Amino acid sequence: MRKYFLCLRIALRVNFGLSVLSPRQLWAKKRDLWMVPLIGLGLVGLVPLLFYYLKGIKWIFGLLQPMGQQAAILTFALLMGQFLVMVFGFYYVISSFYFSKDLNILVPLPLSPAQVLLSKFSVIVVNEYLTAGPLVLPVLIYYGILSHGGPWYWIQAAAVYLLLPVIPLAFVALVVVVLLRFVNIGRKKDALIVVGSLLLMTAALSLQFFINRSAGDNVGPETFIRLFTSPDGLIQSIGSKFPPSIWATKALGYGSAAPGPAHFALFAAVSVGLFVALFLVSRKLFYRGLIGLSETTGKRRILSRDRLSARISSGRRPVRAIFGRELRIMNRTPIFLLNGVLSVVLIPVIFIIMAKAGGGKGSDATEILVLLGSAHPTTAALGAALFMTICGCLNGTAPSTFSREGGQFWMSKVIPASPAEQATGKFLHSYAIAVLGLVVAAVASVTVFRMKASSLALAVPLALMAGAVLTALGMIIDLARPLLNWTNPQKAIKQNFNVLLAFFADAGILAALTFGAVQMGKRGMKTGTVVAVLAVILAVAALAGFQLLMKFAAKRYRDIEV
Question: Half-sphere exposure of 49 toward its Cβ, with a 13 Å CA cutoff?
């Protein structure tokens, strides 16, 4: 166990690398002091979002409490948290277990296969705390406050949250370890990650869709009465397809009274049991599954001097060539592709599935979304613009633009293209992914929210300009301190602190713009005037951000050392 904890400690330090945030490091490297106001801006921007999230939790709690079903809030939050871990855990596990560059260092060391694999698994679990935290933690904390939970509730809530990612991740890890032991996919590893992740997400979303559809078809007055009058009826209905969420809910809902401790013991026992099963399986199969994964294939062709010269001087414009290079880097690395392209379409698709799964036009979920879409024109337009901007821009593509090159960044310093041309090509690539998210979100706004054409016509230009601002800002942040020395492509985009900094900055900017629009609306300004003012602000900010990116690229390309 000593070697395991030592390996885990080193892996955590490499994974997070948060020493840069210590006051001593910040003052030693004064060029990193710009991160402090960005973090502050982001925290200020997150306050309104947290406020409305907590307000919604309180409203649902008050709605369900008279029926004794308030614990269903916990079931929903825990289920969604584990769902996120399951969906994104597949390719995180494969990437970390089998395609991480540090395996060449770890395998020759006097460490058992189980110690290596479990240390990697533990790091993934810690990362998933950050993934599920924004959704689950506010519910656990605020539910405890509203229900006046005693010391036993808070102890069990902490334990449940610590165990939350273990069951879905251990299940995924067991499947991956067994699969890669008996299926030699060394030459098809990238395709396996992409296809496997897409199939898993499709299966999970489809299952949820058909469950809700079938439930909606069978809902009648008697079903409703039985659902809300029977003990834990709503909890059982929500978590019926994933029992661990029910066990955790009952452990928290009943507290120290029976059957609370029994359900907590069951939840903990299954978590520990799956972890032990992963330990036993990894001892036998982990290193055997690594055989053949480093194989590569490719056709070798001898180029003549004339053909080589023709390829080098192909006449392609630099910006277009850089754009194509970014596409190849993104598409050939599954972690980049799934975190970038997939994430911008996932949120709108989930909204569409939620609406369609409710049973069609007359469902409660659909009618609520339609009510939001038919609000005051200013509110509807600004809400749609904010929704499209979030779907398109709040991903790791722009703030990892330069980090994704890793050790190959030296090529960018020697190729015959100016830093401004390279930054322009990279900007167009990141912005194209943002526009993809905007388009899918616009489709969701029409099909789900039934957004009017007039409101959508006002929202789309605002979202496009906001996307340009946030794309330029994310690239500037990454260019200021690119993460080029990574051993796992997951670290370049999923565990890159620049992505978190960009998220803070984006949240602060969007909160400030939303607050300004609300204040203008309260002062009686017309819809067109509010939109025009925001459009001018965003247009100026987009132009200024792009120009700043060009100038900053010319300076930083000279200073960055690989």
Answer: 18
Tokens coding 54 = 């907590």
Exposure string of 199-230, with b = 16+ CB inside 10 Å and e = fewer, is ebbeeebeebeeebeebbeeeeeeeeeebbee
- Which residues 6+ apart lie within 8 Å of 479 measured at CB? 401, 402, 423, 549, 552, 553, 556
Nearest to 428 by CA among 455, 467, 396: 467
Average pLDDT across each block of 10 residues of the chain; the chain has 562 residues. List them in order: 75 62 50 60 68 84 82 87 78 74 76 82 86 88 88 90 91 81 57 59 58 50 55 69 85 80 90 89 76 51 49 62 86 73 74 54 45 58 85 85 86 86 92 90 79 82 93 91 79 79 84 84 80 92 94 87 70
Who's near 446: CB < 8 A, 6+ residues apart? 456
Q: Is 452 within 8 Å of 380 (Cβ atoms)?
A: yes
- Cβ atoms of 346 and 353 within 8 Å: the answer is no
Give pLDDT tens digits for 46-100.
777 788 788 888 888 888 888 778 888 888 888 888 887 877 777 678 777 776 7
* Half-sphere exposure for 485 (CA within 13 Å, toward CB): 7
| Length, in residues, of the chain | 562
Question: SS in 3 state form for 159-182?
Answer: HHHHHCCHHHHHHHHHHHHHHHHH
Give the whole-angstrom CA distance, residue 534 versus residue 519: 12
Residue type, 236: Q
Q: Is 92 helix (H, G, I), strand (E, B) or coil?
A: helix
Structure tokens at 384: 């749609």
Structure tokens at 129: 């705390």
Q: Does residue 255 come out as left (phi exceeding 0), alpha (psi in the -120 to 50 range) or beta?
A: left
CA distance readout (Å), 167 to 83, 98, 115, 242, 350: 11, 21, 19, 11, 23
d(Cα 412, Cα 399) in Å, to the nearest integer? 17
Residue 82: closest CA among 255, 278, 241, 250: 241
Contact 168, 79 (CB under 8 A): no
Residue (of 73, 365, 68) closest to 219 by Cα position? 365
* Sign of the C-alpha dihedral computed for residues 191, 194, 196 and 202 taken in this order: negative
pLDDT in tens, 503-530: 888 888 888 888 888 788 778 788 778 8
Report the alpha-carbon distance of residue 395 to residue 231 in Å, rounded. 41
Whole-Å CA distances, 402 to 219, 343, 408, 426? 52, 19, 10, 9
> Mind giving me the DSSP string for 176-213?
HHHHHHHS--GGGHHHHHHHHHHHHHHHHHHHHHHHHH
To the question of pTM greater than 0.70 for the whole model, the response is no
